[in-house]
What we know:
By secondary structure, the protein is mainly beta. The chain has 2 domains: about 5-190, Porin; about 220-285, SH3 type barrels. The protein has 2 helices and 16 strands. The strands form 3 sheets. Strands 1-2-3-5-6-7-8-9 form an 8-stranded antiparallel β-barrel. The chain has a 5-stranded antiparallel β-sheet with strand order 15-14-13-10-16, with no helix packed on it. A hairpin with a 2-residue loop joins strand 13 (about 250-260) and strand 14. The N and C termini lie far apart (about 75 Å). The model is unreliable at about 10-20 and about 195-220 (pLDDT under 50).
Amino acid sequence: MRIREKIVVTGLLLAFSPLSHAESYMGIGGTSSEYQYSDVKRGYGLQAFAGYRFDGLPIMIEAGYLDGGKNKINDFSQGGVTGTDASLAFQGLLLTTGFFGRFDTKGSGFYAKLGYYTGKSKGTGTFNGVNYDNSESSSGLTFDLGFDWMLTPNFGIRTNIGSLQKVKDLPQLGVDHKSNVTLAGIGLIFAFGGAQHSYPASRSLFDNSPAVNAATPQSSATAIATAGAAIHGQPSANASVTAVLKEGGTVTLASQRVDNAEGSWWFIRSGDSQGWINQKDLQSYIGP
Length: 288
């Protein structure tokens, strides 16, 4: 379908006279917008967002602002109507929630979210020499799929693709003109500490060593921690993170091992930091 058919069929000219961690994060980037019509060009605009990822749960909530840019309609002459310099545009707010799955120690991950958009749909142009410039509120369902690639625990790049469903595309005509709008974007994301990191499965500390009795002190044993390993206040992934070993390195196993449903945990000391670390974040056993 082409949008010029909508304009002609509805008698647009007849309407001209009366119309005339927990973790918080934020980011900004560019976006493209594309209507469902073959004669409407892709627009380019911007997006800004801020959100929160829950500690211990793969859930995110996010609020954002979207300016989809100007989507130019190709000039045409059809059915007695000549249209020039016409375009569509949408600006609005989005509120979404969904799943976020981390897969590295810096907080990179993919997400899928669903929510609600509301904003202003605008149409402009000149048709048979008469100027058309109107806007109308538009709202509905939105969804988005994306990937946050964190270069550091606090800074990264976001890419995403999504859709606004049934956006009004010929405002103030008194008819039900709607189109889905496809969005694709890339931008920067800034994360602010406190969230629980998830970690991929890694090499076990004791793959080739005998099991250590949980009641046996290991005050002089040492091990190598992976870069980005988290130190917790308690032997649980849901406990608060007291420190992150950004560079990894040698740690001292300061007490006995504790086993629970989340795996094996060791109380360690590293410089001025101490706390519990999961065995999966320890690479090799050096020993006393």
